[in-house]
Amino acid sequence: MSTPKLLTISGSLRQGSYNRMLLKEAVKVFGEADVTVADLNLPLYDGDLEEAHGIPEPVQKLADQIKATDAIVISSPEYNKGIPGVLKNALDWVSRVKGAVLKDKPTVVVSAAAGRTGGETAQFMVLSCLTQLQVRLLPGPAVLVAGAMNEFDENGVLNNDLYRKTLTTRMQALRAEVT
Ligand SMILES: Cc1cc2nc3c(=O)[nH]c(=O)nc-3n(C[C@H](O)[C@H](O)[C@H](O)COP(=O)(O)O)c2cc1C
User: Where are the domains of the chain?
Assistant: First the structure.
């Protein structure tokens, strides 16, 4: 069996992002993989821009990464009880690329946020958008890292056993789906 390809998508652009840390932990428990980190630094979706110039190069790159991958893990923060604009913008752009690249792609969604619900509302919104895009969402116990600033050590390691156990369950299920 060849090494599975895993694409990680963070809804936060911040370098010190807890969601980026959570994705690194997700990659570790997924096991050996050919990992690609998506870059959501994209222009804002604009129908005029699309009409004049087509799909922008960084959007096409992201769509190609999605197309090529076996599995996806998305980690999103919550902004004002909702999905972060950068993630929604990326999904909107990708949905405009021909070929429905996200359709049937095995995907797990997790979240980390400062608040007490661990970004539950945002995670629900991400799942809802992905349903529209016909993504193959893997069910399982929700990974909602609440009070994220207290759950990672200085090396970005997730210190909470319960979150770690649930993340492992989800990522092993994702691995089983693609190997
Ligand atoms: C614009 C904005 C809105 C936010 N709204 C929420 C919120 O609704 N719920 C919450 O738990 N945290 C909220 N936060 C705090 C984020 O959870 C926190 O900044 C978190 O670290 C962001 O994720 P990141 O570390 O991956 O960048 C908000 C932060 C920002 C910048």
Answer: 5-178
Specify burial of residue 56 (Cβ count, 10 A radius: 0-12, 13-18, 19+).
middle
For ligand 1, atom 31, name the residue with the nearest CA.
79
Q: Which atom of ligand 1 is nearest to the CA of 20?
A: 26
**Closest Cα to atom 29, ligand 1: which residue?**
79
Instruction: Say what the pLDDT of residue 7 is.
Output: 99
Read off the DSSP letter of residue 108. E
Residues belonging to the chain: 179
- CATH class assigned to 5-178: alpha beta
Question: Is the separation of the CB atoms in 159 and 152 below 8 Å?
Answer: yes
Are the C-beta atoms of 178 and 39 separated by less than 8 Å?
no
pLDDT over 90, % of the chain: 99
